[in-house]
Write a structure and sequence with these properties.
The chain is built from 9 helices and 10 strands. The chain is an alpha/beta fold.
Amino acid sequence: MVKVNAPPGQFQGWSLGDRSPAVIKSVMPFWAWFYQNYFWVKSDGWEHIPAEQASLFVGSHNGGLASPDMHMAIYDWYRHQGVEKSVYGLAHPSIWKTFPGLCKVLTQVGGIRAHPRMAIAALESGANVLVYPGGAKDTFRPHSQRDRIKFANRQGFIKLALRQHVPIVPIISWGAHDTLWVMADLYDQIKRLHQLGMPWPLGIDPEVFPIYLGLPWGLAIGPWPNLPLPAPIYLRICPPIWFEAYGRHTLDNQAYIDECYSTVETKMQLALDTLISEVEG
């Protein structure tokens, strides 16, 4: 078990040892039903996963808090790689405050806090790590932006890969935007109201404030939990991306970090454009 300056208590996202292959096996049939009968998932590219190399898997997702493409990607990983081969997903720390009842299962299937020390500990243990850098801005991006990779210039994943000398393996997904129709993001307007004294819901800055159509609310405003509508989802694992230089010294070179970030974003956008053309062609 690995703990990193963790507060007391189990299932808080501070331990690699909370992951349970037995629990993962128990939820596989649940994931499988949605994979086959609700999202009709089609995926490819699993041959690109490095066999002997811990990797940083970087994805772009959509579909609100439900993020069905993320769940289907995790199921697909265990379906192809087996539940014993460790992969840890970086989850926003606010989840432990907002949804405490779900956190036990989250950690048991491989969720850990999105903290550099936890990501480093996972990679140094030989495990793979899955991250969605765009976070809420990505998963709640408006339907009009469904064809765009959106990382909001968050570069922490680049620094992690450079520090740990691991390749970035992109995960492209398309289709989850139809499980929740986000029409616009009102965050800037709501932030102004917050600055005038209106509190954030649950005391947490949500980073986005979408207006959307979806289940179970119909028309809703705010990043509330949702039930995804049925829609086909397409997943693609892309070839690993290696950079020219690695090591802690590269972290002091912002121009190089920007270059690496641009490389990943550009390659993932080209891969997404290709996938969309294949699906719609």
